[in-house]
Amino acid sequence: MGRRVRRPNEQLAELLAEAGCSRRRLACYVVELGRARGIAGLRYDHSSVLRWLAGEQPRAPVPALVAEVLSGLVGRVVTPAELGMQADDIRPGLGAELPVSWPDGVRAITGLWRADTERRDFVTGAAFGVAAYASAGIRWLTLPGTEPASAGTGRRIGPEEVGGLREISRTYRALDNRLGGGQLRGAVVQLLDRQVTPLLAGASYTEDTGRDLAGAAAELAQLVGWMAYDAEQHGLAQRYLIQALGLARLAGDAALGAEILAAMSQQAVYVARPDQAIDLARVAQAAARTAGSAVLLAECHVAEAHGHAARNDARACAAALGDADRAFGQAAPGEEPAWLAYFDEAYLAARMAQCFRDLGQGRQAARFARRSLDMNHAYVRGRAFNLALLGTALAQQGQVEEACAAGTRAIEIAAGLRSRRSIRYVLDLRRRLAGYADQPQVREFSQRAARLSAARAAPR
User: Fold this and answer.
1) Would you give the distance in Å from CA 224 to the centre of its chain?
2) Is 30:80 a contact under the CB 8 Å cutoff?
3) Contact in structure between 366 and 394 (CB atoms under 8 Å)
4) Packing angle between helix 234-251 and helix 254-270, nearest 10 degrees?
5) Is residue 390 within 8 Å of 413, Cβ to Cβ?
6) Domain 344-460 carries which CATH code?
7) Where are the domains positioned within the chain?
């Protein structure tokens, strides 16, 4: 079979001429727009545009980006087809905005699942968008009440199907705690794309069932976002959490919305955006008060405290921790939803230890880190975190031998996980022990930490 002959892209050439845009400028605009949309790794120059003009078809999301750039330059809407490029119904900013309507929400989340399943680079390799969470938080606060669920015309579903999704969510949540997010995320995304998309997009159901379906899908989307966060795919995690928040809004579930906003706040601290973390935590508090959950309110207060600690504001941190402690003390046993069962005294102690660690108060951090180890043994990854946290607090006090012992126990657990965050905790402890590198136990710990990091960096 002969090679297919490329035809020069005259449509693109005509639009470039109409816009008065050079090849170099177009390439620059495409890269800048992609960066603004949170798309990492775009590398285009005038030679790239020359190849497009010669008939080469660029991969998604480039056609959509070129169309958006040229639309702005010529003052009218230009589609990829008008550029002589293959259209793609998955846009570059997919998932980065909180949906405002039921159809928008279904399109966004199902498109995100599909793009993730297809390993679209502009989704799986997306960078963390600085403004995306701020926009989502404002929309959560200001959008009017949700519209009725928009059912399809397919098979009728009811509480049984929704209950099945919630059971799947519980199962994978338990596995995530035991194995780490990197082990499971692909399987969960495929399940969502194959089983949940047809329900959201085509099934018929009552309004109440539709809201329950949106809530179950929100739980699963949040879980996938958390798995991506655990794997340090922060742009992807951000998009999943935004869409999970949108689904929680469509479900009319203020409690789940507060939980997702608190997760966003925690990620914002992790990526060094403490001001955003504080803002998101405060929005989460408003949602938790609407839901009437004391445990949830405690979680949202401690999320705010962590943001203040990351800004080294000890006074504001102490006030928020006091609010968290009081709210937790008012909780009635068994009031929390199933997805909030992890938030117990040990978890609260771990979050408080993180705050004191970031404030440089090693003695207080160690006290709460020790409390955090009185935890449910099902949370294997959490135990690795908390042991590394204890080691860091001990290192802050110069208790080197004890710090290495705690860190070594963390390494032993982390070796059985697929969790980049657990490795980050271990490497942070190694960094804090660098001043004691002449001591034998520190050398041994550092070597074990390096081997763990190298093993997890190796492709599988």
Assistant:
1) 8
2) no
3) yes
4) 170
5) no
6) 1.25.40.10
7) 10-83, 96-147+156-252, 344-460
